[in-house]
Write a structure and sequence with these properties.
Layout (H helix, E strand, L loop, with lengths): L15 H5 L8 E2 L12 H11 L17 H13 L9 E4 L1 H13 L5 E6 L3 H7 L5 E8 L2 E2 L1 H10 L3 E6 L13 H14 L2 E5 L24 E6 L11 E4 L2 H15 L4 H13 L2 H26 L5 E2 L7 E5 L6 H13 L1 E2 L1 E2 L12 E5 L5 H19 L1
Helix pairs in contact: 2-9, 4-5, 4-8, 6-7, 10-12, 11-12
Bound molecules: 4'-deoxy-4'-aminopyridoxal-5'-phosphate.
Length: 395
């Protein structure tokens, strides 16, 4: 449409939408979604909380409230962040519509058309969708099992003009499941200081750790206020609440608040009140700890099934947490075509082909596979069928 603004050119429908519509249909096994397991939502507790809130004494739960978020929820989030090595006050926290709104607001605050955002290779597709309307240019930095390669990052920072922001998902990244090592986190902060760029740390999977020790957040290593930390209740409580947060220096936080006011006035008061009631009335740490064995089991089952059934020449990541493994097929295999021609029609299996996860120079021979929420028998049957088709196609 010629009357659309220029930014509309950068808001194209994603190729993923088509086949994601298949998820949930009978006969389809979806490794594509990456949704948290709905059997793990604390429904009974939330039911009681909403019942209480929807009474005349709590009519203010249906009223407008502050655009930064309700004071109780900001304080509770600040308390959890402080306990996680990021000492902060309620005023330092902005409540957002999920982590996704944080991505949108940060891009709006920092990115003029042509400014460069440095992303991991591959990166979270939803972040690219959020950033694109601001018309950024992208640079991307390879990853290995220690996360973003900071030597390659240094090279990019040395040779690229107008870098404003480095975007990273350090814990159990979407889509690779990889975690950035402590040494790399430190180096990233050093490089950001040296080259004077902002860092956007996005951590929705941070608390879904199944093995090993929690690493300090990048924000906790930041001494110059250049790291913006995003978090979310989507994976630890429920994504339908649409609740996330931004932790940032006062000047940044205030400007993000103004942009949030412009975008949507505030998050729904009812959901913020409910989340605050959940956090103060129940033990969310116990709730999270209670979810981990389910996800750990699903991860182990998927990795073991892949190991058993995928042919030689296929590689995959072994995530310590989160919801995803990233599978790399031999070069020459186009995952989207393999899915369209074989996986869907012959096995009823869907996953997410890799190309849209690349900010630059897309690679087509990988896939993101989520182990969350697929019943054991379907998971094993899906991976087994996929292995058989891969053997055939790669032969
Ligand atoms: N960042 C990453 C890396 C994600 O994977 C997601 C979604 N799963 C989000 C942000 C946004 O999630 P939400 O808006 O539900 O918090």
């Amino acid at each position: 449409m010629t009357r659309f603004a220029r930014r509309a050119e950068r808001v194209q429908p994603s190729a993923i939408r088509e086949f994601l519509a298949l998820a949930g249909q009978p006969g389809i096994t979806s490794f594509a979604g990456g949704y948290p397991d709905p059997t793990l939502f604390p429904i009974e507790q939330l039911h009681k909380i909403y019942d209480d809130l929807l009474t005349p004494a709590n009519a203010s739960a249906l009223q407008y409230t502050a655009s930064d978020g309700t004071p109780e929820l900001r304080a509770l989030v600040a308390g959890r962040l402080t306990a996680d090595g990021m000492p902060c006050a309620p005023d330092d926290v902005l409540i957002t519509q999920g982590g996704q709104q944080g991505l949108d607001l940060v891009a709006k605050l920092f990115i003029d058309a042509g400014d460069v955002i440095v992303c991991e290779r591959p990166t979270f597709l939803g972040a690219l969708i959020a950033f694109n309307p601001c018309e950024p240019a992208y640079a991307s930095v390879p990853m290995d099992d220690e996360g973003l390669d900071t030597d390659a990052l240094e090279q990019v920072l040395r040779t690229t003009q107008r870098v404003k922001l480095i975007y990273t998902v350090p814990d159990f990244q979407n889509p690779t499941g990889r975690t950035m090592s402590l040494a790399r986190r430190r180096r990233l902060v050093e490089l950001a200081d040296e080259f004077d760029v902002m860092v956007l740390e996005d951590t929705p999977y941070r608390e879904l750790r199944y093995d090993g020790e929690r690493l300090p957040s990048i924000k906790s290593l930041d001494t110059s206020g250049r790291v913006i930390h995003l978090g979310s209740f989507s994976k630890i409580l429920a994504p339908g609440l649409r609740l996330g947060w931004v932790l940032a220096e006062p000047e940044i936080r205030e400007n993000l608040s103004l942009l949030k006011l412009a975008a949507d006035t505030q998050n729904g008061t009812l959901n913020m009140r409910a989340a605050a009631a959940y956090l103060s009335g129940f033990d969310i740490e116990a709730h999270i700890a209670g979810m981990l064995p389910t996800y750990r089991h699903q991860r182990d089952l998927m990795l073991a099934s892949i190991e058993e059934h995928f042919p030689a020449g296929v590689r995959w990541t072994r995530p310590d947490g989160g919801l995803f493994t990233w599978v790399t097929f031999p070069e020459g295999l186009d995952t989207a075509a393999f899915q369209r021609d074989h996986l869907i029609p012959r096995a009823g299996v869907i996953l997410v082909p890799s190309a849209p996860f690349f900010a630059t120079e897309p690679e087509v021979n990988h896939a993101r596979m989520s182990f969350s929420g697929v019943p054991d028998d379907r998971l094993v049957a899906g991976v087994t069928a996929m292995g058989g088709l891969l053997r055939e196609v790669l032969a």
